[in-house]
């Protein structure tokens, strides 16, 4: 085992990111919930998925904060170390991958929803997607990553190396499997979303002149999701290095990559509120009104409606598709 102390600057960067971004994210989240109580617009399928993505981000950061920075406190450290075999250590490790897969499925759902609503507004499948209830969205959003994560969640053979450092130890085979699986899932996510946005970009290039005002709003929402997607490409690079180093016997790079995880996790979580504020003018204005203690004013434009005349040229309905132990590394 390499006893070289991991760098401390990534955790300091994480604290700085959290100090600025977490209060902002909470403000956006509260404003979002208020709007869903008074406006049909913000109860659309797109915003229902986006709400789940916001919840996933906040839960991921809360769980990470509780199982990592908080364990430096004496009483919490004592509790974690004493009861580490009651899934506490395993939860600290497994949650990293579970919340990664939650957000991977979330960005995929958001991207595909944008693709179908803009490119196939009159397709039967699009109507079905737009008619999905909030309960079904919640179930699909959270159950899908659970199914993906079963391989990870069943592992319990983890322990802290010692009371002072509290570094998690895991079997090297488990590390290799989980980093490879994470790389595959993130790669699939980036590939599917890239295909959706490539086709979306091509469609926009072909029909820009005939876009209605409602469809232009849909495109603006797609741009918001696209910028959010860029963070997943950064995570793809991160897990590419993770998988490469996990194949070697040198634990030094593993320690270093593990130390970088707070920055990667913070980037994946905290980019969303900035995407909303800078790329979603309507929602941003409501957040500003919440911050200044003004009542929300909603216009209830049909953000995610099925647009039957999205271009100047009539569109025919498409019916063809009916029917040994090593230090853990994240």
TrEMBL record:
Leader sequence segment: none
Primary location group: membrane
Name under which the protein is recorded: G-protein coupled receptors family 1 profile domain-containing protein
Keywords: Membrane, Transmembrane, Transmembrane helix
A Pfam family recorded for this sequence: 7TM_GPCR_Srv
Parts of the chain that traverse the membrane: 12-33, 45-66, 86-110, 131-153, 180-200, 221-239, 259-279
InterPro entries named in the record: 7TM_GPCR_serpentine_rcpt_Srv (IPR019426), GPCR_Rhodpsn_7TM (IPR017452), Neuropeptide-GPCR (IPR052665)
Subcellular location: Membrane
Species per Swiss-Prot/TrEMBL record: Caenorhabditis nigoni
Any one GO CC term of the record: membrane
Domain G-protein coupled receptors family 1 profile span(s) in chain numbering: 24-276
Keyword Cell membrane set for record: no
